[in-house]
Amino acid sequence: MAESWLLRGVLPYGEGAPVDVRLADGRVAELAPGLAPGSSRVLEAAGQVLLPGLVDLHTHLREPGREDAETVETGTRAAAAGGFTAVHAMANTDPVADNAGVVEQVWRLGREAGHCDVAPVGAVTIGLRGEALSELGTMADSAARVRVFSDDGLCVSDASLMRRALEYVKAFDGVIAQHAQEPRLTVGAQMNEGVVSSRLGLTGWPSVAEEAVIARDCLLAAHVRSRLHVCHVSTRGSVDILRLAKARGIDVTAEVTPHHLLLTDEAACGYDATFKVNPPLRTQDDVDAVREGLADGTLDVVATDHAPHTSQDKETEWGAALPGMTGLETALAVVAETMVLPGRLTWRQVADRMSARPAVIGRLEGHGRPLAVGEPANLALVDTGAAWTVDPAASVSRSRNTPFAGRRLPVRVTATFLRGARTHGEG
Amino acid sequence: MSGAGGSTSRHLLSAGDLSRDEALLVLDTAAELEQVLASSTVGKLPTLRGRTVVNLFFEDSTRTKTSFELAAKRLSADVISFAAKGSSVSKGESLKDTALTLEAMGADGIVIRHSWSGAPVNLAHHVRGAVVNAGDGTHEHPTQALLDAYTVRQRLGRLEGLRVTIVGDVLHSRVARSNVLLLHTLGAEVTLVAPPTLLPVGVETWPCAVSYDLDAVLPKSDVVMMLRVQRERMGVSYFPSSREYSRRYGLDVRRAAVLGDDAIVMHPGPMNRGIEIAPEVADGPRSTIVSQVANGVTVRMAVLYLLLGSAEPAIGVEVTRG
User: Fold this and answer.
1) Mean pLDDT over all residues of chain A?
2) How far A316 CA lies from chain B's nearest CA (Å)?
3) What is the mean pLDDT of residues B39-58?
4) Which residues of B touch A193 (CB under 8 A)?
5) Of 3.30.70.3450, 3.20.20.140, 3.50.30.10, 3.40.140.10, which CATH number belongs to A53-361?
6) What separation in angstroms does the CA of B110 have from each of A160, A378, B4, B8, B277?
């Protein structure tokens, strides 16, 4: 069993007066001011914000297949450094996680590494080919207990197949997480279609290609009474459609990434493929809309879409580069910068968007729980006075493709605990 | 090894990089070079002797490649052609590694043609030598715009206030992008004419007017620039057929007849005779197509001279290496 810790002087959810928190036997054992150390190891954390451990619904760990970009071990270590205690590992590995063998392998590697819990995502269709359903039920019944299914990276664009997938996973309380991208509208697409793409001569990825699929899927989910999750929402139109769908009572949830909360397509101007991502960075108006959507709950969660790539896949012509950016280590700080500091979200709401709700959507037990005595000690400590400059070379992730290099971020995760054991932090 | 080291390097990556003064300097320099060459017996100037210019063509282009080669040779530079086919590039070498190789070899100037937009910008981050964009994807082709401007000025005596109409596949045209930027800088009024499918989303923010109606615009045009229509665009429904395209947007004899007396007709080549331009118009007295080719060499000489001719380049942008 993990040693006992005493976190001294922390602010649960950044609220109220400082308290001490004792972690013992994997749980929050005591939560009160002035606790005696006893045999606990003391962590002086005066004034730091205590949050439930973060849960990422959208992480690319790259193993199996691209261990040169990331492994389950390095990716989950990066997750712990970012305050995460659970991540959902996307299915677009090589081989694809479209069967019980691969999802159990990823799940087991996560357990062995021990930095955070790994919940594998199963591919909706065999080989991500969008043609036939994978053995979704077998993956659900496997040791990996898969509940989230996604062809992420590719859209389940066939309406009939999407309908069947939405229906089928109801049997085991699963959810389809859709990468909304109409493929015919995005042939050869390189960046957001708009003023900047017209200037740069890069093939556009129009907002409507995302919005049309989201609208269709919301209607399908309503028709078959299933739940739907929408990955990485990036446009104002998508937020509007989701707001309408929720008002109609459709069981849809949605996520936004930290990079879509902060960056715009202007970042493409130097043709630095670090900023190439799918869906692409959009306009300031879209950024404003996803911030509003996250604030009012239309967008339920922040998910990183952590997508590590090797330098040879990024230091190349924009068109030849792979899309994606890392995000686990910077996610909370970017949310603080874009949402907390400007007063759009409280820390308690951050805990809701980055821990409680993603855990509910992923049906993850033991995560996303409130900060209370008796709950699992899955926790993150945040120093709100420790601004730092992002240095790609200092990444815990094996890859360096952070879009925030050189950027000053306002807060830093100083410690992470998984069932009472420290997975990140020093001293 | 020749010495790129020490001096500041500037690059020509976009027509938008040029200020009005810089653009005029290129045109004036080209005019001077033309005169000097006309009076020279050897047809060559010693200006870039000992300097190395690399032609790095990742995409086939006989005319632009030959034009740059001639320009560099007429300035007495050592010219190396590094065609992508048959080199290590076709064996999967990255642009970065190619750049580092050229850098190690001491290239003073690198002329790059690439099928991906932005590749010249990427290259400029890795080399000390001056990078000249000879056409990148659907982005830009700044020396084409310069030679077009030079040709217009040669024929009509000025650029300021001229009404220039660019007709055709603007969406995929690097020539159109560079021409809009440069002509705007030089004070011309540009109108783009194309079917709506061949105009980029966002074109309304460009410094030009837009029309779908060629017949309405032609009588008010001093210069008509026809863009090449690629037949493969038909397969993806940018327009229904080349016949319909030609009927609505082709410069045929009937349309050319409504042009003003002094109006000129341009085409960057290669042409689709009978589609975007009728043979009679292409070969007629208004056509500048042949002089555009000749002027291409002169203008590219001016660009190379201004970028490489002295320790402090007279035109272009600086790019941080790293």
Assistant:
1) 97
2) 6
3) 91
4) 201-202
5) 3.20.20.140
6) 53, 56, 12, 15, 34
